[in-house]
């Protein structure tokens, strides 16, 4: 980790090590901390900053407040030969996914399709990080997750949905998978908060006031309700995701998760449903890989259209850029972490921000 | 069927009988004709006019041109214990669905989840008609279908996707199911054609010209490409649907279906994927119906929000209105059918449009 000219640069390994140290000092088990830290480093690697180190303070707050069980051990069990339930036991999502990934992949290969339900879990990660390991082994996968109520349905005014993201992954041969991952809200809540902090207005269509009227004032929008993307269609998707990751799997609705949350700024409790498909089992061609080969015709059409871009391409370009080098951390984030850190981490962070300190390597 | 003051009114039974007679005279087997006619009558019942009798001329044209096999017998077979393939044998979708519905429901109940792939099928129906029978027996279901290339990806200019609809159904106790069914194009192609016919402009965001520039001219938009709804998110969904209903199941891409189509104005060839879930198998509550009960909390929240409406509510209201009474048929449509009809149907249609004829019942 390097500090120079007021900027902090770090290797991905440094980021992972820093995150582990912070999390363990805040009460996480080594297993929970390592899984979260790996996830954070993967997001930094892909310039997915909103789910990188930026999330670490929230993770720490939820451990310090006692909301999340730091040493939770996820428990996996079979509901049917193709449906597996993972009880995250009050811990974070990344370890839950690590524990379940191989099991669900095996069932999907055997039957052609399998589902994973995750409950009692605190989720702060990007969904693409959860689907990529499955797609990397040749599987197709969907993920659906609810959150805490912030978003009104189309035409409505009451926050009912979380930002309710969904993701979909399709494997490609010799290339990183096609993965999209989007919130069904028009915009991330953080984006509205950012406009508020900067004294800027928000575009119409992001949020409504408490009476359901359009607003360009971020404060009024935050007090009212965010809107879904794509009008009634996005609203229908948000409803579907709410049903699949709440009632279907025996978890809370986003409105119930909001009431249950202690407001510590960490991840809310939320359910998640994964459906995993083996693309060699949905047809009976002589060549099992026919589906994957055929899909390349589509990807070629999409990529040859000027001005367009495949979902995920920007992340993979960032990955190629960042994997060998250093990524930048905001000094403000370092300050925030210092406020939450245990003594060992604090001592290390103090060294980074030493005023007037020139270039130089700092542990870990 | 009644003609009065230039308007034609018909009972749902009359519509079904008329459609069967037209289809059989155009070469359909009784089984194919009955399944299509039932579907058309169900759409008229729900004021889903775009998929009602309005579609009958297209069905007839595709039989008369020889594109569709009028006496096709769908063949069902197992790919895995939870994946079933239905070869529609070059026939229409409604019979295919009738044949497969019970089998797929049984597998979903046994394992908790099952999938149906449909290939070699000509599809002109609304997806909600296919999911409602499953939801009526307590099952949750998704449907995904591609079409013929009309729609460009976000930021692009080349038609790649069909209007690629998806649908989702969730059962409710003692109430009709929650079902949404939407195209991933911003708007139906017919809506742009209607504006063109009326000499009206189209809003920005519906279509682009051949260079990918926004247009308000319907003719330029039709020659260029339609756009997906919801920007890059809708575009991502359209890609997913293209993959699931084409390469995954061994069917054509929308671009391939466009090339293969004879342009007769009837349904294009297209693949379809259904995924069916038994909501009593995704959790282990003491009460198997816990998921359905819990979902009602969400529906109550959504329905109590002023100004908002549940997907499907408008259709169910129309159903209540129309089931006992008569629905109206456009005289223009009667004329169009006359041009395509066989001698027996023609004789009957001639009677309806008899100029100066007063009110009175007409066969069938």
List keywords for this structure.
homodimer, 364 residues, alpha+beta, Ribosomal Protein S8, Chain: A, domain 1, 2 domains, seven-stranded mixed beta sheet
What is the number of E strands of chain A?
Answer: 13
Strand content bin of chain A: 15-25%
> What's the Cα radius of gyration of chain A?
21 Å
Q: What is the strand arrangement across the widest sheet of chain A?
A: 3-4-5-12-6-8-9
**Oligomerization status of the protein chains:** homodimer
Q: What is the domain tally of chain A? A: 2
Major beta sheet of chain A, specifics? 7 strands, mixed
**Based on CA inertia axes, which overall geometry of chain A fits?**
globular
CATH domain class name of the largest domain in chain A: Alpha Beta
CATH architecture of the largest domain in chain A: 2-Layer Sandwich
Measure the end-to-end span of chain A. 7 Å
Mean pLDDT of chain A: 92
* Uncertain segments of chain A: 355-364
Structural class estimated from helices and strands of chain A: alpha+beta
Biggest interface and its residues per chain?
A: A-B, 70 and 70 residues
Task: Enumerate how many helices of chain A there are, as a single number.
Answer: 13
Helix content of chain A: 40-55%
Description:
The structure is a homodimer of 364-residue chains. The first copy, chain A, is α+β, with helices and mostly antiparallel strands. Chain A folds into two domains: 2-68 and 325-352, Hypothetical Oxidoreductase Yiak, Chain: A, domain 1 (Orthogonal Bundle), CATH 1.10.1530.10; 75-317, Malate/L-lactate/L-sulpholactate dehydrogenase, NADPH binding domain (Ribosomal Protein S8, Chain: A, domain 1), CATH 3.30.1370. Chain A has 13 helices and 13 strands. In chain A, the strands form three sheets. A seven-stranded mixed sheet of chain A has the order 3-4-5-12-6-8-9, with helices on both faces. Chain A has a three-stranded antiparallel sheet with strand order 1-2-13. In chain A, strands 7-11-10 form a three-stranded mixed sheet. The N and C termini of chain A lie close together (7 Å). The model of chain A is unreliable at 355-364 (pLDDT under 50). At the A-B interface, strand 5, strand 9, helix 8, strand 12 and helix 10 of A face strand 5, strand 9, helix 8, strand 12 and helix 10 of B.
């Amino acid at each position: 980790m390097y500090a120079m000219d007021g900027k902090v640069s770090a290797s991905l390994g440094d980021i992972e090590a820093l995150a582990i140290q912070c999390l363990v000092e805040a009460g996480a088990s080594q297993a929970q901390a390592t899984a979260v830290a790996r996830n954070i480093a993967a997001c930094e690697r892909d310039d997915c900053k909103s789910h990188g180190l930026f999330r670490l303070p929230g993770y720490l707050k939820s451990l310090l407040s006692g909301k999340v069980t730091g040493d939770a051990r996820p428990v996996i069990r079979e509901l049917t030969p193709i449906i597996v339930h993972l009880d995250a036991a009050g811990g974070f999502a990344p370890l839950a996914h690590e524990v379940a990934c191989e099991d669900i992949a095996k069932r999907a290969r055997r039957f052609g399709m399998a589902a994973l339900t995750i409950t009692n879990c605190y989720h702060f990660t990007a969904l693409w990080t959860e689907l990529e390991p499955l797609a990397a082994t040749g599987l197709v996968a969907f993920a659906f997750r609810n959150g805490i109520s912030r978003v009104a349905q189309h035409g409505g005014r009451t926050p009912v949905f979380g930002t309710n993201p969904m993701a979909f992954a399709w494997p490609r041969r010799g290339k990183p998978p096609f993965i999209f991952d989007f919130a069904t809200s028009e915009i991330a809540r953080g984006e509205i908060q950012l406009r508020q902090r900067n004294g800027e207005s928000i575009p119409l269509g992001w949020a409504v006031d408490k009476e359901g009227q359009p607003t360009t004032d971020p404060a009024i929008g935050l007090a009212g309700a965010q809107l879904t993307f794509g009008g009634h269609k996005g609203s229908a998707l948000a409803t579907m995701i709410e049903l699949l990751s709440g009632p279907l799997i025996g978890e809370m609705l986003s409105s119930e998760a909001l009431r249950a949350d202690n407001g510590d700024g960490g991840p809310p409790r939320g359910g998640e449903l994964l459906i995993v498909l083996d693309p060699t089992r949905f047809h009976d061609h002589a060549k099992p890989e026919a589906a994957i080969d055929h899909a390349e015709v589509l990807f070629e059409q999409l990529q040859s259209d000027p001005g367009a871009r495949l979902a995920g391409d920007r992340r993979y370009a960032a990955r190629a850029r960042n994997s060998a080098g250093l990524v930048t951390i905001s000094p403000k984030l370092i300050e925030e972490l210092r406020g939450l850190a245990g003594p060992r981490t604090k001592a290390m962070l103090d060294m980074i921000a030493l005023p007037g300190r020139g270039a130089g390597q700092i542990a870990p």
